[in-house]
Amino acid sequence: MADALALLTMALLVAVGLLYVAGCRRLKGGPR
Amino acid sequence: MTLNGWLQIALFLAVVLALAKPLGLYMVRVFERRGTWLDPVLAPCERLLYRATGVQPDEEMRWNGYAAAMLAFSAVSMALTYAIERLQGVLLANPQGLHGVPADLAMNTAISFTTNTNWQSYTPETTMSYLTQMLGLATHNFWSAAVGLALAVAFIRGIARRETRTLGNFWVDLTRGTLWVLLPLSAVFALVLVSQGVVQNLRPYTLAKLVQPQTVTTTGADGRPVTTNATTQTLAQGPVASQEAIKMLGTNGGGFFNANSAHPFENPTPLTNFLQLVSIFLIPAALTVTLGRMVGSPRHGWAVLGAMVVLWFAGVVVCFWAESQPNPLLHGVDQHVSLTQPGGNMEGKEVRFGIANSALFATVTTDASCGAVNSMHDSFTPLGGMVPLVNILLGEIVFGGVGAGLYGMLIFVVVAVFIAGLMVGRTPEYLGKKIEAYDVQMAMLYLLIFPLAILGFAAVAVLMPNLGLAALTNHGPHGLSEILYAYASATGNNGSAFAGLSPNTPWYNVSLGIAMFAGRFFMIVPMLALAGNLAGKKLVPETAGTFPVTTPLFTVLLTGVILIVGALTFFPVLSLGPVLEHLLLHAGHTF
User: Fold this and answer.
1) Helix or strand run (H / E) with residue B532
2) Where are the beta strands (DSSP E) in B397-468?
3) In sequence order, what E strands does B293-333 have?
């Protein structure tokens, strides 16, 4: 259970990082 | 303050500056894939690695591809370290029979070493097996530093290139940074450390018989004092030298032992102490030369280095002065410099290093996001302890971490030229590139995530007595400094601890883990986006109205912007922490 929570937390952080890349890419005036 | 101390500080700066240029020029050759004298040995290894992993070395990446590759690499290596920690009890190289690391601590440590922070919520010699230290942690010392190097080079390419969409190949930069820069330097430095007495073995811990038995009083399980007569002492061993070298060169800072570079097996002699100091600043200083050469303006590199030296020197002066002052509450004790004692505040410092080398180490390790310590920052005077804290809060850009310091500083450069443009009413330009709305948005995103994580988490921690405050051993303004330092150290990817805080709890392990991740990756993404945008711009010819970024005036403006942004963001909390503690100390209160 503790392992699942820890791995999920790390996976979520990485997923937010990837979403963040997509977000910065879609901002007006940015590099495509 | 002593003349001897100043001479050692001056020698340190001279050696760093002397080594910056040759190493910086060497790194230009490495990252531009030009020939070096190590090619006969390393080029076949490089080719083998690309063939085994299917990397196409000539394939260029856009900024988002570069960011995704970096995130994927970090995620996989982080998960690997987590697994090693959890399973160490059934794995090899564990002569002490240490059990698997608890899940929250394993997660915190995996994030910590992946992000080049090396925050340690644990005592290494009683928690981590030799395999975990070598395969789980020391590998990250190389990889996280190589990732930082790669990112800095990608940012430099963004400035140097024009009308292109690509920043290089992450896998190539990662491989070349590791093979050509970090591995050779670490191998040589590790052997020097061994020659000075740093241990390097896989033996079980040594049980030594005490020459003079000691009476030790500890607190028993029922809370009552228990007195025992100690006749033996356990001396921790391990593969220390190989980890110590990259710990300093990669600005990682995670000690093999809990006492870190105050431990005689990690830092045994004055020479190792000096070399460790130099090795922290070595690559970050050299990267400014790399910057200057790769963007075609060596003087710009020197101007950036100038701002770093000014901010470093200001920190050393304040810290050395503050620690040389006697403690006003120690009445009747001679605290002046003499032939028999170093004078000043010696609490938490090694007598063999004294005031100057402790103050210099504390300043350098927090300037450079290293986090190794040879003295205990919690025991510094309030103003002396404020220097390491302020160094981190400025954003780890005074030399900074390997690669991370340079790209952090270049974000401030963008903000500085933007402000200069506002002052004269012209579109800001940086080395022939117009700085536009998107660039400033990304720079501000980078700068705002940092205080958001530090102040946000610290505020939540002080509002929760059972979670945040329960871990404190000191209260009042000193307790606030301890909590603030922990989140600053985590978000700044420094990793040093102010101590006085017992952070091995689920709350601190998780919140500090998130702060470390945000302080690394959530700042890298806008930085790479900015680099990608700069790479696509046309070159604008320089005119009489262009603000030059190669002059002492630029160095002054850059230094001023860094200090103003830092002060506006963090002065309120500093006034409630170390500044208030200083005033109360002189009013007779201590915490």
Assistant:
1) helix B506-535
2) 429-430, 433-434
3) none
Residue B441 with chain A: CB contacts under 8 Å: 27
CA B315 to chain centre: 16
Tell me if A29 and B104 make a contact (CB, 8 A cut-off): no
pLDDT tens for B189-229 read 999 999 999 999 999 999 999 999 999 888 888 888 899 89
Query: First vs last Cα of chain B: how many Å apart?
Result: 26
* pTM across the whole model: 0.95
Q: How far apart are CA B551 and CA B547, in angstroms?
A: 10
Q: Which residues of B touch A25 (CB under 8 A)?
A: 64, 529
B253 class by beta-carbon count within 10 Å (0-12 exposed, 13-18 middle, 19+ buried): buried
Nearest Cα residue in chain A from B446: A24
In this structure, what token pair is assigned to residue B539? 């070159």
In angstroms, the CA B34 to CA B28 distance is 8
Q: Is this complex's ipTM strictly greater than 0.90?
A: yes
With an 8 Å Cβ cutoff, is A4 touching chain B? Answer: no
Token pair, residue B289, equals 């030369």
Residue of B nearest to A28 (CA): B438
Q: Report phi then psi at B337, rounded to 5.
A: -65, 130
Q: Mind listing the pLDDT tens digit for each residue in B365-408?
A: 999 999 999 999 999 999 999 999 999 999 999 999 999 999 99
